[in-house]
Design goal:
A hairpin with a 2-residue loop joins β1 and β2. α3 crosses α5 and α6 runs parallel beside α7. The protein starts with a strand and ends with a helix. The strands form 2 sheets. Strands 6-7-8-3-9-10 form a 6-stranded mixed beta sheet, sandwiched between helices. Strands 2-1-4-5 form a 4-stranded antiparallel beta sheet. With about 270 residues, the chain is α/β, with parallel strands linked by helices. Bound molecules: adenosine-5'-diphosphate and magnesium ion (MG). Adenosine-5'-diphosphate (ADP) binds next to β1, β2 and α1. The site of magnesium ion has 3 residues, from α1.
């Protein structure tokens, strides 16, 4: 479970000048949710999601993951934490000089120690294997995991292809596989379908839903596209000018016809 409490983020943009991008955000995201965060461009969505994996440091407030305040983590603790959170982006951010299998393996190869827990592994095994002995993953283990992930995202035939030869949808599948390599419990998606046409969007959303159901990963979806939220998010929060103005079950939030911002977002649908 993710609990965001009174989260505020300010950027100093000039001497004595601050820009408040997130104002007193309170939110609870439960395990296995596909939680949408929707809002207009500039509302603060990307900043919010970047706070969740500490790419940005919150100015005030706390973010608890399973009761632990991650804003207080440093050093190795932070590394371990980051392995529990995967992220994908609008522009995929793949390594263009590496083929598909190397892209997916990347997070596993740079992990000097096994800082993540494999499902089914006991706490003791985890500690023995990774945490204390700091054993790197063996080549064979990495290859096995890569093959598993290729199967999950249905790209087994593209294992040795380079990203430049792939379509947008295929690139996003590679990014999803890479993000999931270390068995994260949370997947953050920042406008993950915004660069894709509607048919490809549909297939990526279907894949994310399948992954959510099969692995139980919690998904946080940032988007400005209403249809994305309506298709897969069980819950949604509306972010408007740095503040959460509505949140709850998707049906209820979008059913509220008195909300001006919801009407605006619905009206903005292409
Ligand atoms: P969204 O993803 O909803 O479009 P962002 O979180 O990217 O919104 O940006 C929200 C606001 O914060 C914008 O006005 C943006 O210019 C500002 N902002 C984002 N990052 C920084 C930064 N590093 N320094 C200063 N201002 C920033
Ligand atoms: Mg953004």
């Amino acid at each position: 479970m993710i609990e965001v409490k009174q989260l505020t983020k300010e950027f100093s943009i000039a001497k004595d000048k601050k820009l408040t991008v997130l104002k007193d955000i309170n939110l609870v995201i439960e395990d296995r949710d596909i939680f949408g965060i929707i809002g207009m461009s500039g509302a603060g969505k990307s900043t919010f999601i970047r706070c969740l994996n500490l790419l940005e440091k919150p100015t005030k407030g706390s973010i608890l993951i399973d009761g632990v305040d991650i804003t207080r983590k440093r050093g190795r603790q932070l590394l371990i934490l980051r392995k529990q959170i995967g992220m994908i982006f609008q522009n995929f951010n793949l390594l263009m000089q590496k083929n598909v299998s190397r892209n997916i393996a990347f997070g596993l190869e740079i992990t000097k120690a096994r800082y993540f827990k494999i499902p089914g592994m006991s706490g003791r095994e985890y500690e023995e294997l990774g945490y204390f002995k700091k054993r790197s993953l063996k080549k064979k283990e990495i290859e096995r995991r890569v093959d598993e992930l290729l199967k999950l995202v249905d790209l087994e035939d593209k294992k040795y292809e380079y990203p430049s030869k792939l379509s947008g949808g295929q690139r996003q599948r590679v990014a999803i596989a890479r993000a999931l390599a270390t068995y994260p419990s949370i997947l953050l998606c920042d406008e993950a379908t915004s660069a894709l046409d509607s048919r490809t969007t549909e297939s990526i959303l279907k894949l994310l839903k399948k992954i959510n159901e099969e692995t139980g990963v919690t998904i946080v979806m940032i988007t400005h596209e209403m249809n994305v939220v309506q298709k897969i998010c069980n819950k949604v929060a509306v972010l408007d000018k740095s503040e959460i103005v509505a949140s709850g079950y998707t049906k209820e939030v979008f059913g509220d016809t008195s909300s001006e911002i919801v009407a605006q977002l619905l009206g903005g649908e292409e």
